Amino acid sequence: MPENCLFCRIANKQLPAKLVAESDHALAFHDIAPQAPVHVLVIPKAHYASLAETPDGAVMAAVSELAKRVARELGVEEAGYRVVVNTGDDGGQTVHHLHAHVLAGRRMTWPPG
After folding, report:
1. d(CA 52, CA 55)
2. For 1, 57, 89, 111, which has the most beta carbons within 10 A of its beta carbon?
3. What pLDDT score does 113 carry?
4. Residue from 30, 47, 96, 99 carrying the catalytic annotation
């Protein structure tokens, strides 16, 4: 774990976060600067700087499964939700620990940005 990684510190329970759900390999918590009525971050517990650094599909499978569970548990599964993974600086990634944004609670527009 990189010692300055914010999300690693959250995953290791060294920093507080408003937890939503947890699995063996991933953790979900509310974003501190929400961009939608529902804005939850889902991270792998292990550190990967971005999607580009994952060794195989198992990491994203764990993140995706927990994102799906979060949508169901927060009651937005039926109305719809968006899952976004930003990769690298030009992709809009600001915290360099792989994470997915689960956004819901309003109609999403396209293109996103």
Report:
1. 9
2. 1
3. 63
4. 99
